[in-house]
Automatic annotation (TrEMBL):
Pfam families: HpcH_HpaI
UniProt entry tagged with the keyword Metal-binding: yes
Protein name, as recorded: HpcH/HpaI aldolase/citrate lyase domain-containing protein
Gene Ontology molecular function: any one: metal ion binding
UniProt keyword Lyase, yes or no: yes
UniProt cross-references to InterPro entries, sorted A to Z: Aldolase/citrate-lyase_domain, HpcH-HpaI_aldolase, Pyrv/PenolPyrv_kinase-like_dom, Pyrv_kinase-like_dom_sf
Record family assignment: Belongs to the HpcH/HpaI aldolase family.
Residue intervals of the HpcH/HpaI aldolase/citrate lyase domain: 34-241
Amino acid sequence: MSYQNASPVVNSLGKTRLQHSLEQAKNRQGPSIGQWLALPGHALAKTNAALGQDWVLIDCEHGHIDDHNMYLQISAISSSGVSPVVRIPADQPWMVKRALDAGAHAIMVPMCESKEQAERIVESAKYPSKSYPNGSRGTGAMFAPAAFNLTGRDYLLSANSNVMIFVQIESRKGVDNVEEIATVDGIDVLDMLFIGPNDLASSLGYVAFDHATTPEVQQATQRILDATLAAGKYAGHFALDAAAAIRMNGGCSIGNGMKNINGTEDRNGEIKLY
């Protein structure tokens, strides 16, 4: 690959910072640390990216972030040597395409409820190729290569393996089908199942914010975690503090609930102890 500039966002093996941090976490060499970003603004994204984390998730589902701000924030985050992840509003192929064309290192797709749906999501995120003939991602604007420090041609050659795909399991139906969803074929195809505890609690008939203390929700969460790890995929979940991350041993814990930048720095230090 022809890397245009040396940058911590992609290492010498062509792995994004997100991929590298997840591999380290899987090998018990430290956590993969990221932050949720729900507000627009290039400067805000740049500030958050400088806090020592591996990735920043731009929340276009529940956050107040449109396509214009998504593009600006992806640029701000990736140019800081941190991986930008985008949670899109729904599982629509055009939404997948917009996020990836802007340079997202990974997409998170909410409310995945079946294996067939997961396969459609994967198809929309992959360029058609000999190794993945079912891919349906169109080749268009070349904004994305800059976020990977690649030429346009090299981005096209590597995107199918460098771009990660996360789906959220956050409903009763999703839990019922999680074993099938987790076995979507192929390495570098469906990378992570992420547990959405609030919507999962609501789907099961409980108050969303009571998920951490509701036994049925915790049982469903454990089923998702077990199915995901058994299939060799990454499992993601929220952790309100380091103690919660330790309790969910085996998955990728996402720090949440920070009130300000200082709190975020403290939380990152706390989770690093894990």
